[in-house]
From TrEMBL:
This is Uncharacterized protein. Pfam families: Hydrolase_3. It comes from Loigolactobacillus backii. GO terms for cellular component: cytosol. SUPFAM superfamilies: HAD-like (SSF56784). InterPro entries: Cof (IPR000150), HAD-like_sf (IPR036412), HAD-SF_hydro_IIB (IPR006379), HAD_sf (IPR023214). GO terms for molecular function: magnesium ion binding; phosphatase activity. It comes from the Bacteria.
Length: 270
């Protein structure tokens, strides 16, 4: 029986205008009232998704979110971490040297703010997030020892391609590397992804993957799509991602989440 629904944000729950449709909000609210956990799973910090938590009224004592692509499981009410996985400054040194070599931008995130490395080219990360997080210009030399949730390189797709091609094989043992958007690469602690965060949350709530439904559309959603009993891929997902789900739905701009949920949970049609 499905008791938890995990939802990626960009390209899945959110429309192209970065909003949650009224129909989707109403359906998710009914499911939560029915006792089903609604869990937002994102690369963003908990404080950066509060507007969406407000839209869905996800502020019961046992409401949680998966943040930083699985590095943190956060309580929505207290914003405290149930689980936290971190990188140190020493962990970041090889990545910093590569970014220097090819002149790629880097933004380093702790669990509250973003440190933009000012000696590297400017990223587009702040422009994408707006005022949702505090951005602090700094240099790698003055960066603290950590802990850090993740590192983001966000520029244009051409630069992201170049960085991806330059990543040495050893990096795949030092980081979990995901391309969350065509122009964005993220570097997390090895073994950390949305699936690991969800697994920890399921255990905390005395549930199992057999109780999980997940929706996603990008590379950083693959783990949770595979973990879930029902893994639903959006029509707007790249073709390669669609092979990892057990079901397909319509696009994020066609109420794909709402469409699938009303088909699966028949009581929603009453």
């Amino acid at each position: 029986m499905i008791k938890m629904i995990a939802l990626d944000l960009d390209g899945t729950l959110l429309t192209s205008q970065l909003t949650i449709s009224l129909r989707t909000r109403q359906i998710l609210y009914r499911l939560r009232q029915h006792g089903i956990y609604i869990v937002l799973c994102t690369g963003r910090a908990i404080n950066a998704i509060v507007p969406y938590l407000n839209d869905l009224n996800l502020f019961q004592a046992d409401d949680f979110s998966i943040n930083f692509n699985g590095a943190v499981v956060s309580n929505n009410v207290t914003q405290e971490a149930l689980v936290q996985s971190a990188l140190s400054k020493d962990d970041l040194r090889p990545l910093y040297r590569l970014a220097q070599k090819i002149q790629a931008p880097l933004d380093v995130l702790d669990f509250k703010r973003v440190y933009s490395l000012s000696e590297l080219p400017q990223s587009t990360y702040q422009a994408a997030l707006g005022q949702l997080l505090e951005f602090v210009p700094t240099t790698f030399a003055t960066l603290s020892a950590g802990p850090f949730a993740k590192v983001v390189s966000k520029s244009n797709a051409k630069m992201t391609d170049q960085l991806a091609l330059q990543i040495p094989e050893t990096f795949h043992h030092q980081f979990h590397i995901v391309r969350s958007l065509p122009n964005e690469l993220e570097f997390l602690k090895p073994g950390v992804d949305k699936a690991t965060g969800l697994s920890q949350l399921l255990t905390h709530l005395n549930l199992s993957p057999a109780n999980l439904m997940a929706f996603g559309n990008e590379q950083n959603d693959i783990g949770m799509l595979q973990l879930a009993q029902v893994g639903v891929v959006m029509a707007n997902a790249p073709a390669a991602i669609k092979t990892y789900g057990s079901a397909l739905t319509t696009s994020n701009d066609e109420d794909g989440v709402a469409d699938f949920l009303t088909q699966y949970f028949t009581f929603l049609n009453n």
